[in-house]
Each structure stands twice: as structure tokens, then as C-alpha cells.
Amino acid sequence: MRQFTAWLRRRDPGLAAMRRAARTAVVMPSLFALCTQVFHAPVTGTYAAFGAFAMLLLVEYTGPVMQRLRAHAALGAAWLVLVSLGTLASRSVWVATAATLVVGFVVLFSGVVSSVLAGASTSLLLAFILPVSSPAPLTQLPDRLIGVVLAAGTSMIALWLLGARTQADPLSAPAARVCRAAAVQLRTDADYFTGRAAGPAFGECRACAQETRSSTQNLRQAFTATPYRPTSLSTGSRALVRLIDELTWLSAILVEAAPAVEDRSSGTRQSSVVRGAAATVLERAAEMLDDPRVTPDRLRAGVEQLRHALTTLEDGAVERLPIPDGGSGGRRGLGTLVDSLDVTFRAQEVGFVVLQIASNVDIARTADHRSWPDRLLGREPGSTAGSLASAAERAAAHVEPHSIWLHNSIRGAIGLGVGIALANVTGVQHGFWITLGTLSVLRSNALSTGQKVFRALGGTLAGSLLGAGLLQLIGHDTTVLWILLPVAVMAAGVVPAAISFAAGQAAFTLTLVILFDIAKPADLSVVLFRIEDIALGCAVSLVVGLLFWPRGASAALAGALAEAYVASARYVLGAVGYAVSCCTFRPETVERPQEGRRAAAAARRLDDAFRTYLAERGAKDVSLCETTTLITGVVGLRLAADAVLELWRRAPGGRPLEDRAAAQRALLGMAERVFQWYESLAEGLENEGPVPEPLESDREHSARLVQAVRRELRDADARAAGTGIRLIWTGDHLEAVRRLQSPIAAAAGHADARVA
Known about the structure:
The protein is an all-alpha fold. The chain has helices at 2-9, 11-38, 42-56, 65-89, 93-109, 115-119, 121-132, 141-162, 172-193, 202-224, 235-257, 269-290, 297-317, 330-366, 372-377, 387-396, 404-426, 431-441, 446-474, 478-498, 501-519, 525-548, 552-584, 595-615, 624-647, 661-687, 699-713, 718-739, 741-755. It has 29 helices and no strands.
């Protein structure tokens, strides 16, 4: 009861589950009664009841009501196709098994394309499993299809009449608080650095920085500490997940950008303008996160102002350069030069990350207003690629050996196929439940599957005993059974989320006992068959889990982290190569590095691995805090590479290669050194080996870089001086990537210790 009360306090997920259960409790018994009692069509009633169950309880689409109605209409059409295929395939054991393998894989793997398909995967599998595991003559197909049509039509009516507005994502509010805290810190720092005596005190700046860190920690806890997944698989929710990583990265940057000592003279007017514009963007992003009805116009206007401020910062940096001479003061001049550029670099780095945050907030809030084809195929708002191209790119990112989604799809398809074959070979009376038992308990590793097996069997046994007691007490008084059926359906919908999987199995078993006894009064053998079938399905899941993924999601997460680090570090190396090319050639003539797409694909696979890791029950090898640090490191690498590309987007180019050869060699040497460290880190993560020590600051390459661009910084040509500044800032991005190594190495070292 305490757990149920705590679940109800989590208002959004609790009320959403109760609404779905209430709609199902109204529609499912009504359809079953209409078909069995009025029209005396038990086959139609069975498919109508299970169709309503799958369409109302197992699926929850987001967005406006009309979008959700279109999604349910498409789901009903898919049910008609799958029921027809399942009925045709059920006439032969081998055809049924092969068809289950193919359909199971296609349905499960298609979830990578969009949230519409991912959210409907269990419902779609049920549409095929129900007929393929129940062989029947083709003359029954019309009755089955009529039941599906009744279920789809009634479900849409119930959604129209009883559907409430989509609840806000539980991450939105804490993300908005981080945006506001960061905005306050940026404004405070900007006022402090202007040097005005009436400005904020040094202690006030440090207090604002602490508030930003505290808000960020609360946001991370909202994502990792809840027993339910705090976001769905929708495009908007995925944008919010990326937003968490970017806000975490912004918090880390603001710690370094905040005043470390009491010195009001270390800022510039242009850098203060950038901080102020970034604060405005964050405040407007917070408004959109708090209220989905706010239009993105104000946010987009703020983004344009921030871009203009960044351009002014880059152009004005040339005018403020302290020019080092070649005399005895040259070394001091170089130091002053680097310090001056470091101030503007910090502002430029903050501005770029805020632009990324604004982009994700814009995507998160406009995703629900896409057209139906775009939602179905997972095309992001504002994407230049077509819907089919977006779907193909997303699916192609998972057609490789390390994809968690590919593993899940193959394992799930094989488990379902074996369940169908076993049901036909053993000749049990209710083979459908073997396959359903396989699907319900199959998890990412043998341990988790084993835990689900015991919960499933325990819940089934408890529900069966309760059902047996009710049947003995009530007998075959159908009036009482009809009264109890909606209550049992409501419990089956609420209990799994509110209490536990085992309690859900008990409620579901009780519902089936009542349903079967109403349709065809029988003795307690239906209870025994239910236990037998679930036990066989659990055994299939356990064997498949042992054969295909004995190490589980922890090992898969380590592999996905290793792959993401290598791909992201290679992206950084490619971005530096792009910058080096832009020194000589104009940016529009230089091909952008393709490593960015591969890094993005690896990051998507890492996201899926992390979700699977969070979903696994049992003890975790690595704490969520350390895992979060490792994942944030991947985000930092990709953002650094993106920032380098954006930095060189307006580079003038046009200088002979020999004029900048020394600077190019210095940058490439720094990038290669950083890449090799992250490659060694990835090897240690994947093979549970030692973690490399963080690199020391690359003073030699940095000095060579400054010396190499010294002549250009003294050049009267502003274009040449601008290129020199970009070279220095590119080196600063590499230095920021190097500073990431200390927290990453610490988290990875703790992970190794736990595993060992």
C-alpha cells in the first residue's frame, strides 16, 4: 500500500496509467459482452476484447487528439494486416515459426525509426501472436477481422470522449529550473566582469554557480532515480534527454567560466554581451519548457541575437589583441595574448552550448505538431532530409554488431519463434500463453530474465489461486463475474506500474480466469493450463537469454561507451582536420567530416544501451553517478567537435599552405594526442582493462601554435588575424577536451574496481 501511495504522488505517470486502465475497463468488457451475449460470436468477442486491451492499455500516443486518433486508426489497420497474416501462417507449424521470426524481428527493430512504432511494438506483436498460435480454418478470418474493427473503432471513440490532454514530460520542470539558474549565473558573471563598483560581489557569483550545479544535480536525479522511465521514446522526449546532457555540460563550463578569484577586470564588453544574450535565450527556453503553449518565436529571436553577439565577439577579438613584439618582452606578450583570447573563448564556448540547448528545446516543443508521416517515420522538425531518408538513416545506425536494439530484436524474434514451435509441438490447449509468457519475461540478460521468471510464475500462481477461490465461491453466476470483470481489468492496468510486475501478473491472470469462465464455463483446469503455459514460456525466455546475451546490459553498456568514445574522438580529429583545411581553402569548398554522422549514430546506440541498463533490475556494477559522468564525456566530445566546425564556418581561407604549416602541424599533433588517449580509454572500458592516466597540458604544442600564428596576429589584414584567432580557439577546444579526461578517468577507474 505504501508503494501504491507513493506511485499516486507521482501525479503525471500515476494519473496517465489510471486513465488508460479506466478506458480499458469500460471498453473491453462492453465489447466482449456485446459479441458473446448479444451476437453469440465468441471468436469475434475474443479478438474485440484483446484488441481493445492492446490498443488502449498497451499504447499511449502523445500529441494533439487528432494526431492520436490518426495513430490509433493506423494501429487498427496494422492489426487487420497482422491478424490476416497470422491466420494464414498458423496452418503449418514451420510456416508459423518462420513467419513469427520474420514478423517479430521487423516489428521489434522498426521501433528504432520512431516513437509511434516503438510504442506500438507490444500491441503489434500481440496482433500477430494471437492468431498464429491459435490455428483455425480460414472461415474464421472474417469473424476475427470484425472483432478487430470493433476494437479499433470503439477505442478511437473512447479516446475521443475520455482522452485527456497529454501530460507534460516530468523532465521539463527541472530542466527549466536549470536554464533559469544558468541564466542568473550568466547575468551575474557578466555584470561582475564589467568592473563596475556597484556590480555583484565575488561571493554572489560563487553562490549563483553553486545554485546552477545544484539544479543540474536535481535534473540528473529526476532522470536516473525514478523507478519508471521518465521520458517516452518520442522525438520530443529524446530531445529532452539530449537536453539533460547539454545542460550538464553547460554547468561544467560555467564552473570554469565563473570568476575563480576576485578580479573584475578579466572580462570584456563583447564577452559580457554574449553572456547576456545567452541568458536571455535560456530564460525563453525555460518559458517554453514550463508551458508547451508558448510559441517558439521569442526563443528564435533570442537565438538570432545570440548569433549576432557571437559574430561581433569573433570580429572584435582582432581589435583587442595585445600585439606581442619580438624583443625581451615577447614571452610576456605571448602570455598576455593567450589570456586575452581565453576570456573571449570562454564566452564563445558558452554561447555555442546555449545555441545547442535552444535547438533541442525548440525540437522538443514543436515535435508534436509534425505531420502524421513525419511522426510515423521519425523525421525531426526542421530536418532537411525527407521522411524516408530520416527513417533509413536511423535504422542504418543500428545495423551493426554492437547495437542493443539489434540484439533485442533478434533475441525477441527467436524467443517468440521458439515459443510458437513449442506450443505446436507440445500440443498444449492454450499455446498463445506460451508465447505471451516468453514476451513478457524476456529481458536483457539471464539474471534479469530469471528474476522475471520467478515473478511471473509467482504472480500467476497467486492470481490463479485467487481465481480458483472466486470460482469456488461464485460458481458460474455470470452476473457477479460481469461485475468483477471491469474491476479486474482496471487492476490489471494499474497494478503493474503501481506495485510490481508480479502483482500485475496476478491481476492479469485473474482477469483471464473471469474472461474464460464467462465465455465458456469450465472447471479449474483453465487455471492449471495458464500456469503450465506461462512456465513453458518462461523457460524459453531463460534459455534464449542464456544463449544470446549471458553478460547482459552492463557489458553492452561498456561496449557502447567504448564505441561512442572512439567515434566521438575521431569526430574531434576530423573537425580539426576540417579546420586545418579551412586555413588554406574557403570553407564552402571543404567537405565537412563524415565522422559526425558516425559519432551521432554511436551516441544513439549508447542512449539505447543506457535505457536498457536503467531498465534492468538487480544490482548495478557501476553507480548511476559514474555512468552519467561517462556519458556526459561523450556529449562533451561531440559538442567540442561541433563547436570547431561552427567556428570555421565563416573562415576567410585563401592563404598558401606554407604560411600556416607550423600551426597546422601543431593542431593536428594536439588532436592526435587527445584521440589516442580516448582510444586507450575505450579499450580499457570494453575489455575491463586499466584506464590511462589523464594527459598533462600540452604546453609544447600550445607554445608552437601561438608562435606559429604570431605573425598573422600582428598582420594588419583583419582576415589573417581572424584566422589566427580561430587557430588559437581551436587549440582551446582541444584543451577543454583534454580537461574532460580527469573526471572521466576517475569514473572509469571506479567502474573497473567494481567489476573486478
